[in-house]
Amino acid sequence: MRYAGGIIPMSIRLGSSKACPYRSSPQRVGTADGFTLIELLVVISIIAVLAAILFPVFANAREKARQTRCASNLRQLGIAVQMYTTDYDELYPWAVDPTDVNCPQIWYQFPLWQSLIPSMPELHDTLAPYIRSAELWHCPSDTGYTVLEDAGIPINATPTSYAAFGSSYVWRTELAFAHTIAGAMPDPAGTNVLFDGYGEWHSGTSVMSAKRWEMLFADGHVKNVDRSAYDAAWAVNLQ
Question: What is the mean pLDDT of residues 40-64?
């Protein structure tokens, strides 16, 4: 069939409703299968905000777990102390702690007691027969220290006190020096016996007024104490 212009084009002969077989299908313009840059930035921003909110929560949860384990250590060490007093006529262990050994000058006001330190065993050795594992002396929050609290005396308790001395804890050595009888103490619930070697471990701050310690008392209970309670325990008379 012809028309005035010559041979009828293929597109007309096939019908105008059908696409030309020699033309590619139309493409979508301006779209993409993945995220755009702006969308990615929004997602990253959201993740950063969530991380800023959740990371401190996770850190606090981990520290609470470490505090719980530290308190358990002290509670079991308290049982060991009680077993010792049962075997030795209610007298507290005749022993010193790492701070006494490495900084004996803290007892300069009591020259007799200070002179006894070199001949006394350390507490973790004295109580060894009463405990199952030396790990009880290891506070999981122990990160060491380089200055003795309150005294300001340099001491190398690094990388941890436990690694340096075999104990994360110090004790009220006065209980030994004064030959304190456990059953005759006026205030066992308020008297400190064992506690963390450094108050920054459980507080995360070097501000003295904000520090905290896990502390074992003479009646066997353990408590996380602030600075005022720490000082109050030290102020309790032993006799």
Answer: 74
Query: Tokens at residue 209, please?
Result: 């007024």
Q: Rounded to whole angstroms, how far apart are CA atoms 2 and 89? A: 129
Distance CA 164, CA 159 (A): 7
Per-residue DSSP letters for 89-141?
Answer: TTBPPS-B-HHHHH-GGGGTT-HHHHHHGGGSPBHHHHTGGG-S-GGGG--TT
CA distances from 4 to 9, 67, 137 (A): 12, 99, 108
Q: Which residue has the tokens 């020699």?
A: 22
79-101 pLDDT, tens digit each: 999 999 999 999 999 999 999 99
Nearest to 168 by CA among 177, 159, 178: 159
Enumerate the domain spans of the chain: 74-133+169-235
